[in-house]
TrEMBL record:
Superkingdom of origin organism: Eukaryota
Keyword line: Methyltransferase, S-adenosyl-L-methionine, Transferase
Pfam families in the record: Methyltransf_16
Protein name per the record: MT21C methyltransferase
Molecular functions per Gene Ontology: methyltransferase activity
Keyword Chaperone included in the entry's annotation: no
InterPro entries xref list: Methyltransf_16, SAM-dependent_MTases_sf
GO biological process, one term: methylation
Matches recorded under PANTHER family: HEPATOCELLULAR CARCINOMA-ASSOCIATED ANTIGEN (PTHR14614), PROTEIN-LYSINE METHYLTRANSFERASE METTL21C (PTHR14614:SF13)
Keyword Phosphoprotein: no
Organism: Dromas ardeola
Amino acid sequence: SCTDSPVTLKILQNWVPRVSHYFDKEHYTYVGHQIVIQESIEHFGAVVWPGALALSQYLESNQEQFNLKDKKVLEIGAGTGLVSIVACILGAYVTATDLPEVLENLSYNISRNTQNVNMHKPEVRKLVWGEGLDEDFPVSTYHYDFILATDVVYHHAALDPLLATMAYFCKPGTVLLWANKFRFSTDYEFLEKLCNIFNTTILAEFPESNVKLLKATVREN
């Protein structure tokens, strides 16, 4: 149920302040790797949101519970790519997806931060929530162990397509990890819908950042 007692955590300030001529680059350290993220001010999806920091930190700290090594991982709404980069460093086969206008910056960050990492090469693909899933990601070929999503719920109209996308990819055996900042009634409404469809547990809360991290799995009848 959604009433479990989650662990209470704090997002650690583990980005490295840099004196840089580029105001749009952030330096982070996860799993012993320095990660440099280029943000873009034009697009929502191209800024590092707190949910991405929360999930990156949680994956780093809970590698035994969620072992990503050699697992197939899909990130939806990957944004700047931070979470996908961390998943790749943790040894996953990563597919990072987002809207077409975000892909250039996403690809740049992912290739730049994983080129010297001796892991599976991540893939970057277009995925518009709820559109063309059968054609682009046919069930017969694509099965994921983990679906990752951070800060995908905010004031926008695509919540039903987002839920449909989560339901499409969440097969028996798949674990959905979703971290989000909870601010609006729409955030809680989405959570309620998620709880109606999936077995849902709140794994962690980051009260200072208003972030909740949830695990969802498909209900097996």
